[in-house]
Each structure stands twice: as structure tokens, then as C-alpha cells.
Request: fold
Amino acid sequence: MDINQDDYPFIPYERDTYSPEDMIERSRRFYEYMDTRRSVRHFSDKPVPKAVMENIIMTASTAPSGAHKQPWTFCLISNATLKSQIRSLAEEEEKRSYNGRMSERWLKDLAPLGTDWVKEFIDIAPWIVVMMKRAYEVEDGKKYNNYYVAESVGIAAGMFISAVHNAGLVTLTHTPSPMNFLAKALKRPDNERPYLLLPVGYPADTVTVPDLERKALEDVVAYYE
Ligand code: IYR
Reply:
């Protein structure tokens, strides 16, 4: 196929830049702000405006993606009947996972986090977002695979989580496994596969989180100067 780059004109791009001192200060502040994020398992049922969720989804959708295909769909759920249906299906799978499918070692690793198969937050959080990855697109009845789908949706999920934090809300990356039941319950088309379930809302009134420490810089960086 002949590709003429002139058919795809570029446009100028400008953005604010900062002095080295300001960069250090801004990046430090952002790190400290992000370091206040915690995964929360207990939510308040206090409503959150839909417009907030739409802004968060649009932020996530600014993520870079393979060939700019943006291979994601964010299912935005507030319907109580659907939430409770999803909860019972998730719990069915999770109960089996916690009671046999997960290894002893895995359960031991999870013990400090206080997780179990009960997923009450699916009923309680005002919004449940199910992120779908779009494996392919259909054009003129033909399937065209998307590119680097796992990488693309992973990046979008990170940006989603950051946007939730920026709004002053909390979320949790819930991964019921297997999660095919979600595609069915949400009547998604064949090209979409469930990727993550994220409840979003305010934390419950007296919420607690595990006393975790994050790795130090020297434990996560390898320098080549
Ligand atoms: N998917 C299950 C179990 C689970 C697994 C890991 I690894 C976690 O970090 C947390 C939970 C669940 O969502 O409960």
C-alpha cells in the first residue's frame, strides 16, 4: 500500500515549560500528592455528580494508545439493580477463588490487605466503572485488531485512578477472575473484553487502610548515567 505522509499533516504543539528549580518543585509536589492516594475497600453511598465521572473518563481517554486507536470503553454504572447483579456474579467467582483457586502463598500475600470474597462496595459505591479493552474494531464487516491493547488500557487505567484521586474521591482496582460474566451482564459486543472493575466514590466515614509502606527510590530505580 502506498502511504503519502502529506495526507497526514502535523499541527504545531506548544506547552508551558518550567525552570529546573520549578520542575523539581512541581514534580516533588505531584509525587507527594499522588503518594496520598490509597486503594480503599469501604465506600460511602454519598452521590457523586455524573459530570465528575465524565471528566475522569475523558482524562483516562487522553492516554497514549497503540496507533491512537484508544481501544477502551468505560461502562459507567449507577443502576442499583445492575450493580447488585454484578456484585452477586463477582462474589460467586471470588468465593471460588478465595476458597480453593488461589494458592496458600497468594492468600498469605493478600492477608495484610484484608481482602475477601465479599464485594459489598459494588452495591454501595455510587458509581461502578467497568473498563473494557477493545481487542478489535469492525469495519465493513471485517475485523481489524487493535495494537498493544493491554499496554494501552493499562496506561488509561493509571490515568483514571490519578483523575479519581485529583477529584478527591477514592477507587479500587477490582479484578474478579474470571471476569467474562461482566461482558455478558453488560451486554457488550464481541470485540470487548472486561479489563478492570473500579468502584468510585467517597470513602466510608471511618475508613481504615492497611499500614503499608511503598518501596524507596533505590529499590525501584536502576541508573545508567
Ligand atoms: N481478585 C481478587 C483477589 C485479589 C488479588 C490480588 I493480587 C489483590 O491485590 C487483591 C485482591 C479480589 O479482587 O478480591
Strands lie at 72-77, 127-134, 136-139, 142-145, 170-171, 192-201. The pocket of 3-iodo-tyrosine is lined by residues 94, 110, 115, 174-175, 177 (CB under 6 Å).
